[in-house]
Amino acid sequence: MFEATNTSDTVTINVADHIATICLNRPKQRNALNWEAYDALKSHIDQASRDSDIRCVIITGADPAFCSGDDVREIMAAGDPSERRPHNVRPGPTPAAAAVLECEKPVIAAVNGAAVGWGMELALFCDIRIASEKARFGELFVKRGLVCDVGGFLCLPDIVGPSKAAELLFTGDLIDAEEAKRIGLVGDVVKHDELASHARAMAERIAANPPLALRYLKEGLRRLRYDRLDDTGAWVTRSLATLFKTEDHKEGVASFLEKRPPVFTGR
């Protein structure tokens, strides 16, 4: 599997042979993202996008997970992020989401385990998704009384179809790697210990192609899908600002931390 180059970093980057491998590196938290990790992810994606030597990007996680979304204790349990991180809440996509969506290089998600909540969004933001047999996917936002990021609204319906996207968003159900492949969420499912080499081989095939052609192909795909990106991102920001203040959101977080079924009241 992928290994972090610096175990003290929340997100690491390794560049070799025109390929940047970005690894979420909080394995004890199942690679849940706190503010530091969000900032590091954005920084590394921006670096890869600017670096003319990099032709392809792989995003993965340190085992046992890909990304379990927001760190519930550090982010969700603390209330509305706009009150603590005003620079992170803007009228558009969240900064880390925008960085991945706007990256000029092809991005491969090597999903080695759970990709849930914002972790599933991160996989959706990537151009290509490859899953380990251990991968699991889930849009869990509804279970926390929230809405998803722009990935669930702009990417998911295009990838799996509007009806299946609605089902995944409305239920918050988890699906395994084989179901993800059946509905077209991922392109390949491979043995867990073969994921790194499989993703690397695909990245090498991509990186062997002309960099300028790759850049224009990426831009064409982005134009087709993300004409409404800023408007949708602004709506998500406004919606979350409201939902973070609801009793149902507080109950969703509390029930998760207390390991009990939630009781939602519509308030």
Could you characterize the architecture of this molecule?
The chain has 267 residues and is α/β, with parallel strands linked by helices. It has a single domain, classed as Alpha-Beta Complex (2-enoyl-CoA Hydratase, Chain A, domain 1), CATH 3.90.226. Helix content is 42%, strand content 15%. A six-stranded mixed sheet has the order 1-2-3-4-6-9, sandwiched between helices. It has a three-stranded mixed sheet with strand order 5-7-8. The protein is globular and about 55 Å long. The termini are far apart. The N terminus is likely disordered.
The total strand number stands at: 9
Helix content: 40-55%
Number of helical stretches of at least 4 residues: 10
Question: Measured on Cα atoms, how large is the radius of gyration?
Answer: 18 Å
Strand content: 5-15%
Strand order of the largest sheet: 1-2-3-4-6-9
User: Could you name the ranges where pLDDT drops below 50 across 5 or more consecutive residues?
Assistant: 2-7, 84-89
- CATH T-level topology: 2-enoyl-CoA Hydratase, Chain A, domain 1
**In CATH, what is the class?**
Alpha Beta
Choose one word for the global shape. globular
Overall tally of domains: 1
Report the CATH architecture.
Alpha-Beta Complex
Structural class: alpha/beta
The CATH H-level superfamily is 2-enoyl-CoA Hydratase, Chain A, domain 1
Please state the average pLDDT score: 90
Main beta sheet: strand number and arrangement? 6 strands, mixed
- In sequence order, what are the helices and strands, one letter per element? EEHEHEEHEEHHEHEHHHH
